[in-house]
């Protein structure tokens, strides 16, 4: 191994490191966006009611009952 050996860093890793250094609040804004869309409280009783009230789908959807 050479004396002045540098560990390998991919171009993607370099890009992400550069992006984070230019925009330090990036991770916080990503977390805010995730909380806005995904991190929701789940009403388990409502979910159970939806499951019970579900109507089974017929095998061929476009065929009318006749």
Instruction: Catalogue the unreliable spans.
Output: none
Number of helical elements: 3
Helix residue percentage: 40-55%
Mean pLDDT: 89
The span between the termini is 80 Å
- Main sheet attributes: strand count, strand direction, barrel closure: none
Shape, please?
elongated
Radius of gyration: 26 Å
Number of separate strands: 0
Give a verbal description of the structure.
The chain is mainly alpha-helical and 66 residues long. The chain has a domain at 11-53. Helix content is 52%, strand content 0%. The chain has helices spanning 11-22, 26-37, 44-53. It is elongated and about 80 Å long.
Question: How do the helices and strands line up, and which of them pair or pack?
Answer:
Elements: H1 11-22, H2 26-37, H3 44-53
């Amino acid at each position: 191994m050479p004396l002045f050996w540098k560990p390998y860093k991919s171009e993607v890793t370099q890009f992400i490191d550069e992006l984070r250094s230019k925009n330090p609040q990036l991770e916080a804004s990503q977390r805010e966006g995730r909380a806005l869309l995904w991190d929701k409280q789940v009403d388990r009783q409502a979910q159970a009611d939806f499951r019970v009230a579900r109507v089974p789908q017929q095998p061929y959807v476009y065929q009318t009952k006749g």
